[in-house]
Structures are given as structure tokens and as C-alpha cells.
Amino acid sequence: MSTRLGIGIVVCALTIQVAQSQTVRQGVYTEAQATRGQAIYKERCASCHGDTLGGKMGPPLTGSDFLSVWSQEPLFELASKIRSTMPQTDPGTLTWPQTADVVAYILQAGKFPAGRAELRGDEEALKQITWPAASVAQTKPAAAAQGPTFPPAGNLAQVMRGILFPSSNIIFTVQTVDPGAKKTAEGGTKQDGGFNWMLWGADIYKGWELVDYAAVALAESAPLMLTPGRRCENGRPVPVNDPEWIKYSVELAEAGKAAYKASQSRNQEAVSDISNVVADACLHCHQIYRDRRGLGVNPADPGNKASRCVK
After folding, report:
1. CATH code, 134
2. N or C: which end of the chain has fewer CB atoms below 10 A?
3. Residues 78, 175: one domain?
4. How far apart are CA 232 and CA 241, in angstroms?
5. Total number of domains in the chain
6. Does one domain contain both 130 and 78?
7. What pLDDT does 145 receive?
8. Which residue range forms the structural domain that includes residue 29?
9. Any domain includes 61
10. Could you tell me the pTM of the whole model?
């Protein structure tokens, strides 16, 4: 009897879990909620995304371009983006209920049907809602036409020091400096060091935006690391066809994507945690292609460059 009871409990639990999982085609919001969301959208979002959600200064929030970005993830990712980073002029000021209302309006504009229960503005509920497989399939981009190719303008060390090194350091700085720290009346920040607002963005961009941009730079780094014809600082060719070099280049780009996702949460602890992934990605490559220089050579000495870029 106890065995049968245990099986029944498991089956019941699985049934509840399946029942909780929905797609946006199953009526996950109400008409009244979408109406509230439309009012919020007009006041807080339309100036950037357009009166009809077709895009303006910001990207469209409906149509194939929109679906190609968001239909790969649970609905929570879209809601979290809105909650943490929008509106761009005053990010983080929408409440979770307001965010859910705006998402409801976006779904209505995308011709997804309304239902009888309102969309809940909490992580657990939103992670149970996905996009239908058909929507995902329809968003696959067409094969790009062959474009022009560009020879490398700098050697590997210049790319590392000009793009990857400063970008990584911005992400590492989040461990000790809150990018969202408010400026003091004197024009500085509440914390010294880390982000120099005059140097990083000439006081134009906010701290979290700088972290976004740094993470994107790393996420876009693989083509830079794998550009045919690029040379190392010592004149040797970058081993772009070496399987390990390719592996580590992709690892760094994936770490950048993870850092960008963490940065979008506007959570210092989340970015601090992912900075270790970035550090490991750098270390894995450095140990093989930068720091191993033979017996009797100090691996910490950056002055010995003769054997860099080779195993």
C-alpha cells in the first residue's frame, strides 16, 4: 500500500508541474491587465519603442525581430529586462506588478490571446511560461549574404590591451564597487576607485551601462581572437586553427555573454559571481599560450614575450 501511495504522490506532483508550465498562446494574461499595461507603456515606454511598439530609438517589441531575440527564453527574461533596466531614462522604477502589466500589453500587441487569470509578476510564475515552438522556429534568421572581409589592424597584444583587458577589468571592478552607486553632490561617487566616471564614458553613461558594454565586448571577442592573419606581439601568427585556441576563444565569448546576462539583473553579487567565470576563461588561455615559457623562466615576467602564442 505504501508503495502505491508513493507512486501516486509522484504522479500527482508531476501532473501539477506540467500543469504549471504554459506557453504565451495559452491565455496567460487578461484584457484588463493589458489595458493597464498599455497606459503604463504610453507614459513610460512609447517615447523609445514607438506608439505601436514598432521601435523608435529603442528596438521593436513586436514582430519577427522581437521574437528572434526573446522567444528562446522563458517569459521571465523579458520581464526581468524591463524590470531591471527600463525605462532607460529611469531604470528600475517599475514595480513587478507594473512590469507584468506591460508584458501583458506586449503579448496582446503580438496577437497572443488573453485568458481569465492575470499574469503574475514573480520569478517562479514567469519562468513557467515559454514561447511556443512554432514562434521559435519562425524566428530563425536567413543565411547572411557574404560580406566584405577585413584584415587585422593590430596584433594580438594590442587587441587584448585595447579591448579585452579594460573590458574585463570593468567587470572585475564590480566585485568591490557598486555600479549603481549614486554620485555625491560634489560630482564623485560614494566609493573611491574602480569606475572613474570621467574616464569611462566621459560621465555620459551610467555605471551599469558600462558593465553592459564591457560584457558585450567580451561576448563579441571570438572573431577578434580568430581573425586570420593576425600576428602575436612577437610576430608569430596567432594559432587561429589550433583546436585549443578556438576552444578558449569561444570560452571567453561565452563568459562575456554570461556576464552580460548577469549585468542585466543590475545585481552586484550576480556580476561578482560571474566575474570568476571571466577570470577562469582568461587564465585557461594564458596558462597555455602566454605564461609557459620554458624552464628557468619566470612565468610571471611579462617582459619575456618570445614564446607567447605558442604552446
Report:
1. 1.10.760.10
2. N
3. no
4. 14
5. 2
6. yes
7. 59
8. 23-138
9. yes
10. 0.77
Please list, residue by residue across 258-281, b when 16 or more beta carbons sit within 10 angstroms of its beta carbon and e when fewer do: bbbbbbbbbebebbbebbebbeeb
Cell of 117: 487569470
User: How far apart are the C-alpha atoms of 230 and 152, rounded to whole Å?
Assistant: 6
Count of beta carbons in the 10 Å neighbourhood of residue 103: 27
pLDDT in tens, 213-268: 999 999 999 999 999 999 998 888 999 999 999 999 999 999 999 999 999 999 99
Q: Return d(Cα 92, Cα 84) in angstroms, integer.
A: 5
**Residue 6 covered by a domain:** no
Phi, psi (deg, nearest 5) at residue 190: -70, -20
> Residue 61's closest CA among 91, 81, 33, 43?
81
The DSSP line for 222-291 is HHHHT-TT-B-TTSPBP-TT-HHHHHHHHHHHHHHHHHHHHHHTT-HHHHHHHHHHHHHHHHHHHHHHTS
